[in-house]
């Protein structure tokens, strides 16, 4: 959140209460600290600066858990020069109660030493927010979120009023992976850094957890090549931050399709015995649950989420002899058929899958 006016530090914050009478938690106004091992992605920090110095008023930083969204913006906010004063607010689900969110917005501005125009009051409900209020505050927003906010983004994109940093932008490049390993006291060859980046999809949390697991090995690079994520902290993170955050229906679909390199709604319906996979996959993509669209209704799960590598046995769907609900073919064989394996030409007609992923 950017604002350019000035005022006395923390004016109005001490003892402030929310509309429901609770004290304002000033800890939510603190910019998160950045660890020494953080890798600054200048390409993304520069994009943030350009976006906030331009005509647009919104930057959306959107990606899955552990992608490095918050640290990217926190590092940018603490690295001058900046296009204006930075005001940080960590939003919470309780802010949806009437008047709470805007009470925190206004107190965050005061906390960071900004003088508000006379007559400014916090709207109680979203419908009470008008353009004049936003104009008076002079805000430019950076929204950090795992999911797409419920805003008319299509309209903002058409008008050129929003800049976006997505999960693909946040992903580490091989040279950044090598630097991250170096920050942890580990030297990786160019090939080792490339292979680790490919295996993790450049996912920041996956990279760091893999590197931490390899630190005690005699040969870290060989360890990383043979590393099984299913019995590691990587699996714990995936389960806690990604899988368990989803509905039971989404969890079942993710687990049953995790043996496949690529997923199509028809294939997912076949593997799960459901008929709503298209909707579930679309919701998972919007939630950034490590599901990547490939085009033509095809999706790909994050490489670390493959069942045999990322899910401990107690969370796996039994594989031996597993068969699809409708067609009686073993799951793994049907995945191979859908991906163009030896049986593809013989069986593709029975999959209910048309076309293929965009290359």
TrEMBL record:
InterPro entries: P-loop_NTPase (IPR027417), WHD_MalT (IPR059106). Residues 1-20, 336-359 are annotated as: Disordered. Signal peptide: none annotated. SUPFAM superfamilies: P-loop containing nucleoside triphosphate hydrolases (SSF52540). Residues 350-359 have a biased composition (Gly residues). It holds the Pfam family WHD_MalT. Residues 240-306 form the MalT-like winged helix domain. Gene3D superfamilies: P-loop containing nucleotide triphosphate hydrolases. This is MalT-like winged helix domain-containing protein. It comes from Streptomyces finlayi.
């Amino acid at each position: 959140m950017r604002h350019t006016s000035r005022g006395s530090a923390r004016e109005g914050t001490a003892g402030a209460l929310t509309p429901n009478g609770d004290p304002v938690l000033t800890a939510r106004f603190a910019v998160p600290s950045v660890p020494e091992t953080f890798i600054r992605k200048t390409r993304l920090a520069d994009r943030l600066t350009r976006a906030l110095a331009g005509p647009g008023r919104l930057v959306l930083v959107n990606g899955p858990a552990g992608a490095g969204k918050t640290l990217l913006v926190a590092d940018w906010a603490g690295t001058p020069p900046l296009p204006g004063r930075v005001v940080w607010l960590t939003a919470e689900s309780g802010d949806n109660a009437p008047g709470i969110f805007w009470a925190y917005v206004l107190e965050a501005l005061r906390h960071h030493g900004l003088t508000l125009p006379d007559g400014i009051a916090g709207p109680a409900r979203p419908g009470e927010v008008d353009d004049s209020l936003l104009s008076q505050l002079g805000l430019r927003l950076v929204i950090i979120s795992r999911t797409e906010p419920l805003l008319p983004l299509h309209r903002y994109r058409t008008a050129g009023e929003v800049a976006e940093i997505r999960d693909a932008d946040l992903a580490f490049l091989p040279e950044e992976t090598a630097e991250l390993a170096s920050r942890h006291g580990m030297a990786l060859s160019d090939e080792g850094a490339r292979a680790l980046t490919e295996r993790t999809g450049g996912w920041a949390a996956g990279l760091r957890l893999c590197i931490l697991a390899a630190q005690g090995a005699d040969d870290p690079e060989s360890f990383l090549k043979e590393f099984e994520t299913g019995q590691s902290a990587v699996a714990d993170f995936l389960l806690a931050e990604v899988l368990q955050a989803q509905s039971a229906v989404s969890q079942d679909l993710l687990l049953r399709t995790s043996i496949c390199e690529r997923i199509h709604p028809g294939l997912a319906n076949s593997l799960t015995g459901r008929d709503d996979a298209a909707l579930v996959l679309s919701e998972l993509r919007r939630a950034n649950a490590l599901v990547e669209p490939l085009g033509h209704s095809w999706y790909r799960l994050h490489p670390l989420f493959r069942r045999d590598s990322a899910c401990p046995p107690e969370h796996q769907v039994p594989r031996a002899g597993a068969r699809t609900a409708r067609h009686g073919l073993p799951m793994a064989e049907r995945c191979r058929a859908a991906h163009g394996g030896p049986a593809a030409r013989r069986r593709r007609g029975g999959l209910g899958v048309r076309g293929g992923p965009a290359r």
